[in-house]
Specification:
CATH class of the largest domain: Alpha Beta
CATH topology of the largest domain: Aspartate Aminotransferase, domain 2
Strand content: 5-15%
Distance between the termini: 42 Å
CATH architecture of the largest domain: 3-Layer(aba) Sandwich
Bound molecules: pyridoxal-5'-phosphate
Radius of gyration: 21 Å
């Protein structure tokens, strides 16, 4: 559990490294973009996969009862959510789940609400499947990002709005929505017959005093109108195993989603993913606590560094995730120029703000799930580039 140790990812076809040329036009950038971590998975998970891999038969596999029970236990332990085993269904990833939900519960031309700036695939899953995006932009206030409920009330009153995809905790702004916010959002959607798909993939990566509160755990009424997506992939750095799950208390919704899973023949899943989930949820908590402490340290480091050296760059300290949303508006550059500058002058491969929506203008997303030395180097490079221009 030495997160300071730099792990060499070369030779693993890691997207974070291999896509640099394609995305940034050069390999000469420190890759701090796509949301995975540069840390080894918990040793228990590694051993579990090794053990399974040692049996040289990799045919179709089923998920055993232990898979579902470990999810039930994890939700109870980490999120105080009493989930019934029957509510849980395997899914081969959260983004595929969003697509299946869109196909199961909306028709072409229907509107789906998202709250930008938000995780770019939220746009794709709606547009690529012939549905229409209805934006309910977040408000960037001095105290942090907030939801615009008046606007949400107005847009959801329209009959063609059928679904809202919630990002909770929110990528990229790092908000952990509180009980009041969730209740208000949930009530507005319920009243207007707008189904909520709550993407809670970052639920385990919370930093502040306020714990993650699953939307569907708030009341039976909200539970009836919510499909919750979760996964061990962000938490334990096992996204390449493509294993997630949904929690759907409403039997009618669950059955329809299960039908989609059948229709696409995606139900077999990845056998290593199933084993990894069980192992991570059973034995991964000590590792997770250490990881969270390390990430908090990285976040603090960046916050302090920016405050001391480039206070004109605005950041709301994330309440969750290992992602930081940096506002470079004060540098007065166009987005294209800022992008080029970050790549060519600072030598950093970050996520380009406008891909998160028009609200991402002048922003870049920084992934701090890397060893402290790497983050220190990245910040030093950013400062040096900025000072050269400022001089
Ligand atoms: C909010 C959010 N949802 C979903 C995903 C991806 O989920 P999956 O790999 O299970 O499709 C990510 C990855 O960054 C994410 O940030």
């Amino acid at each position: 559990m030495n997160f300071d140790k730099i792990v060499d990812r070369s030779g693993t076809n890691a997207l974070k490294l291999e896509f640099r040329e394609r995305l940034f036009g050069t390999e000469e950038v420190i890759p701090l973009w796509v949301a995975d971590m540069d840390f080894k998975a918990p040793q228990e998970v590694v051993e579990t996969i090794r053990k399974r891999a040692a049996h040289p038969l990799y045919g179709y596999t089923n998920r055993d009862e232990d898979f579902f029970q470990s999810i039930v236990k994890w939700q109870k332990k980490r999120h105080l959510w009493h989930v019934s085993r029957d509510w849980v269904e395997f899914m081969p990833g959260v983004v595929p789940t969003l697509i299946m939900a869109i196909q199961a519960f909306t028709n072409e031309g229907d509107k789906v609400v998202i709250q930008p700036p938000v995780y770019p695939p939220f746009f794709d899953v709606v547009k690529d499947h012939g549905r229409v995006i209805e934006e309910n932009p977040l408000l960037d206030t001095k105290k942090g990002y907030r939801m615009d409920f008046e606007h949400l009330e107005r847009i959801t009153a329209s009959d063609d709005v059928k679904m809202l995809i919630l990002c909770h905790p929110h990528n990229p702004v790092g908000r952990v929505w509180n009980r009041e916010e969730l209740t208000r959002l949930g009530t507005i959607c319920q009243k207007n017959k707008v189904l909520i798909v709550s993407d809670e993939i970052h639920a385990d990566l919370v930093h502040g005093d306020q714990p993650h509160l699953p939307l569907a755990s708030i009341s039976p009424e909200l539970a009836e109108n919510t499909i919750t997506c979760m996964a061990p992939s962000k938490t334990f750095n096992i996204a390449g195993l493509n294993t997630s799950y949904v929690i759907v208390p409403n039997e009618r919704l669950r059955k329809r989603l299960q039908q989609k899973l059948q229709a696409y023949h995606l139900f077999t899943g990845n056998m290593f993913g199933a084993e990894a989930l069980k192992s991570a949820y059973k034995d991964g908590e000590v590792w997770l606590e250490a990881l969270l402490e390390y990430i908090r340290g990285n976040i603090e480091y960046v916050m302090d560094f920016v405050e001391q050296n480039m206070p004109e760059v605005r950041i709301h300290k994330p309440e969750a995730t290992y992602l930081m949303w940096l506002d470079f508006s004060a540098w007065g550059m166009s987005d294209a120029k800022l992008r080029k500058f970050i790549i060519e002058e600072a030598g950093l491969g970050l996520n380009y703000g406008p891909t998160f929506g028009t609200q991402g203008k002048n922003f870049q997303r920084l992934n701090v799930a890397s060893s402290r030395k790497v983050i220190e180097k990245a910040m030093a490079q950013l400062l040096e580039a900025r000072n050269q221009v400022a001089r």
